[in-house]
TrEMBL record:
Homodimer. This is 3-IPM-DH. Its EC number is 1.1.1.83, 1.1.1.85. GO terms for biological process: L-leucine biosynthetic process. One of its GO terms (molecular function) is NAD binding. It catalyses: (R)-malate + NAD(+) = pyruvate + CO2 + NADH. Pfam families: Iso_dh. Keywords: Amino-acid biosynthesis, Branched-chain amino acid biosynthesis, Leucine biosynthesis, Magnesium, Manganese, Metal-binding, NAD, Oxidoreductase. Its cofactor is Mn(2+); Mg(2+).
Amino acid sequence: MRNYKIASLPGDGIGIDVTAEAVKVLDAVARLDGGIRFEFQEFPWGTQYYLKHGEMMPKDALAILASFDSILLGAVGDPSVADHVTLWGMLLPIRQSFQEYVNLRPIKLLPGIESPLKNKGVKDIDMVFVRENTEGEYSGVGGRVNPGTSAEVALQTGVFTRHGTERILRFAFEVAQKRPKKHLTSVTKSNACNYSMVFWDEVFKEVGTDYADIHADQYLVDAMAAFLVTHPERFDVIVASNLFGDILTDIGSAIMGSIGLGASANIDPSFKYPSMFEPIHGSAPDIQGMGIANPLGAIGAVKMLLEHHGENEMAELLQQVIEQQITAQKVLTPDLGGTAKTWEVGDDIVTRILASR
Ligand code: ATP
Ligand code: MG
């Protein structure tokens, strides 16, 4: 029996609704497979916890989470809590202390989904973003000089270590090698960021010499933003720094047709620590409590969790089931033009999983 201990962090708002569906789907996978077991433990951390206790999660949270095989995250955020509190109080400590240096986001336009790019006749969109997740522009290095005076200066320093840059680029080459197109695009801004990004470009060239079979190219981030809208079908695997990856992946999720469809994984490839899987959307207070959040992003995150643990057969099955569910156009939430509730989509996925054998 392959036993996986999963920490479930539903968080806030619709994170709670979609995580319930993700857990349901994992249970269905275990029922179908028979050889897999998931042990879930739920932790009520997030902004509601913060409003009561003054911190997003307890002091020993990281020690507790470290004993799990993976973390399933919903979303954290609340209009009454500053975004940097939610980020620095929970998400960044987890990503950084568990060395989840890879943020993976697959972007695929599925048949039947209306992409905002549909008028361009763009169809064949299937790419994966590999975002550096622990350093770069989000290292938290900086400060304020002469605070409150007319001579005030705010500094935010990007930190790009050779170790950190090499390992993310190598990981990206490895991802590209497993895909049919074997094409890797590195995104920087070397003309303006003349230290960090020039360094990144150098390391990209160096690491690339170990991957002669990969078609590797480079774009400036401004041009890349435009190309993702005009020619998204040109790209396969895209690697970028923390900040650029953050921005470009939001373009990616917009192309997919709904933010509710996107999934992402924060991965420690060494398996020393748990990796964390989440939908890309936030807590979405505007639709909280309405039962209409699309759970397919969270369910896509479950697919990535299965892949991470080498459960490839079940991961592939789940991907097929998600695609069938969408193309059937019957049980869809309002963001995709349907009238289904969150749990009806989850139930439909479960039915399809169990019917597959
Ligand atoms: P946060 O502060 O936690 O990031 P947010 O207000 O930025 O929350 P997002 O989750 O980024 O909210 O959502 C942006 C928009 O997309 C919202 O209008 C929301 O209703 C919609 N949305 C987000 N997730 C989903 C989903 N799973 N299903 C349907 N609509 C969604
Ligand atoms: Mg947001």
